[in-house]
Amino acid sequence: MASRTLDIILFGASGYTGKYCIKEIHRLTKGNGRFLTWGVAGRSETKLRAALSECQKQIGDDLSKIPVVIADIEDDYSLRQMTAQSRIIINCCGPFRFYGEPLIKACIETGTHQVDVTGEPQYMEDIQLKYHKAAQEKGIYIVSSCGYDCIPADLGVVFMQKNFKGILNSIETYLHVTNEGVKAGPHFNYATWESLVHSIANAKDLAHIRRKLYPTSLPRFKPQLKAKPSIHKTNIGNGWAVPFLGADRSVIYRTQRHLYENESLRPVQVQTYEMVDSLFTVIAMAFYGSLFKFLVKYKFGRSLLLKNPALFSAGMFTRGSPSEQQMKNTKFCLTFHGKGWDGEFVKPEDEQNQPLSPPNKTVVGYITGYDPAYGVTAMTVTLAAIIILTETEKLPKGGGVYSPGAAYAKTSLIEQLQSNGLVYKIKSKL
């Protein structure tokens, strides 16, 4: 990769997430002794230059000389030409089940690393199944879900494992998102809604992929962590907890499986939940969720969902974009409720010495931050790309397709997230 003209290319830079990434790449590639070069890529030079101009006005720095590369996801040659110019690609062009794989192929052909911001489990696991060996042969790293989906949750579990000081058996995560100071409005843009519709519509594909990806099951450690009722009270906050339907749990599983198979670490059992402030909101979510699950099964239903995102999401998703002020005032707190035992670590293969008594230790961790959907996503995916370039020796040896926790467990990513606005805390009791 020594002859490449750029360190990083941002693909899909003119989209909503891409514009956030432009600002974060500009900020993070020139700090802490870094002097990394970068450019933007996409189909339209006009839109790319407009995105740079818009970001230039917001940050007050000159971006007019940032290289612009034209590449189209439907033109394999243009993708190879683009990827050959850079050491790593940040891919913000979704839905990834439609637009992700051609760029993966181009990166493998040209020996280029890639990170992305997908939250689509079927896509991520299918890519790992198809391209892990090819990526290893090329010595490149392909890491998906490097945005708000799912770095906070996945690296949060790794953070808990490092700080538990004993044998960690299980973690329940609780996500609470609040809006401070401004009237609530849409939280996500249309591209996120489109990905959600297609992911859930094709959820049945995931079981087939997993049977091939994981032909053997992980050992069942006791006590088994069972899912709680769909709606339940908890001593974490004052609201109600409902199942979290995002990709966190599937990504965490991939990480825990990697750490078990390659580092002899006991895989942590995980259940994921979301906190809701009022019972009325829970009832509304149940109504909209039931309607969504019914419609997404059918072609006409998916068409309705895609044409009317605000109507079928109670305004959470729109064809427009959330205001910058609203995003800045959106706060998230992700709580990790971990249970296990005091004492020395026991390797998972040491079946005779596994603890048999009920867990006697509880550790609670928190991750908090602002602007999760876009600001955090832009920051985390940029740092994920930079880490691959600057801490390659701390990544899993030889390249491959990985989840964030598997790729970055031994790197400084958690510390760099803390230095850039995310707060990590550990305490022994709720």
UniProtKB/TrEMBL annotation:
| Coiled-coil blocks | none
Can you cite an annotated GO cellular component? mitochondrion
One biological process GO term for this chain? glycolipid biosynthetic process
Q: Looking at the record's lineage, which domain of life comes first?
A: Eukaryota
Q: Where is the Saccharopine dehydrogenase NADP binding domain?
A: 8-143
Which Gene3D superfamilies does the record associate with it?
NAD(P)-binding Rossmann-like Domain (3.40.50.720)
UniProt lists the family membership as follows:
Belongs to the saccharopine dehydrogenase family.
| Entry protein name | Saccharopine dehydrogenase NADP binding domain-containing protein
Q: Which organism is it from?
A: Ignelater luminosus (Cucubano)
